[in-house]
Design goal:
The chain is of the alpha+beta class. The protein has one domain: Regulatory factor, effector binding domain (Multidrug-efflux Transporter 1 Regulator Bmrr, Chain A), CATH 3.20.80.10. The protein contains 2 helices and 9 strands. The protein has helices at residues 54-67, 132-144; strands spanning 33-36, 40-48, 77-80, 93-99, 110-114, 118-125, 147-149, 153-157, 170-179. Strands 1, 2, 3, 4, 5, 6, 7, 8 and 9 form a 9-stranded antiparallel beta sheet that branches. The protein is globular. The protein starts with 32 loop residues before the first strand and ends in a 7-residue tail after the last strand.
Length: 186
């Protein structure tokens, strides 16, 4: 399970785990929404390695955005390209960033576009460290409903952990999907 306590200009954030992506009981449909989302620009700080470097990377992200006069258009986000349960920590690929409108982004930041337009959306409420249970539910629901994962997972951090109790923290999770023909519920 990934767990890290992170500090930055706006908030100290911690990331939830993604252990147990498959299996388990299929949760009720109302917990998850398949939705179409418009592509959007975001600036990110590409990261590789263990999540224990999260705090220093968030500090670098905020410093870089401030020095480049980049204004966030929404909550901080994390994009995760592999599963920490099956990938060695030194090989984990992830990024942190913010939606932006500016296109003049300089190193160490990278301007990217989120292009996955169909996602399963879920809301995790609680400490970041306990999100692994939500991931297991999402993955079980995706499989049971005839979808396949089609891209990296995005988390949007909707709460400020400096002013929100851990049990009340809200993290929106997006899992890009495609419909798998002939599978799942009718």
């Amino acid at each position: 399970m990934k767990t890290a306590v992170m500090g930055a200009v706006l908030a100290v954030l911690a990331m939830g785990g993604v252990a147990g992506w498959a299996g388990g009981a299929v949760p009720a449909a109302e917990e998850f929404t398949v939705k179409d989302v418009a592509p959007f620009l975001y600036c990110s700080l590409p990261c590789k390695g263990p999540f224990t470097s999260m705090q220093q990377n968030i500090e670098l992200l905020f410093y870089s955005m401030t020095s480049q006069s980049l204004a966030p258009l929404g909550p901080m986000l994390g994009v995760y390209y592999n599963d920490p349960e099956t990938t060695k920590a030194e090989n984990l690929k992830w990024e942190i960033g913010f939606p932006v409108s500016e296109t003049n982004v300089l190193e160490p930041l990278v301007l990217k576009q989120w292009t996955f337009t169909t996602v399963v959306e879920a809301l995790h409420i609680g400490p970041y460290e306990t999100s692994s249970a939500k991931y297991a539910e999402i993955m079980a629901w995706i499989e049971a409903n005839g979808y396949s994962v089609a891209g990296p997972i995005m988390e949007k951090y909707l709460s400020d952990p400096n002013s929100t109790r851990p049990e009340d923290l809200k993290t929106e999770i997006w899992v890009p999907v495609t419909k798998t023909e002939g599978r799942g519920r009718p």
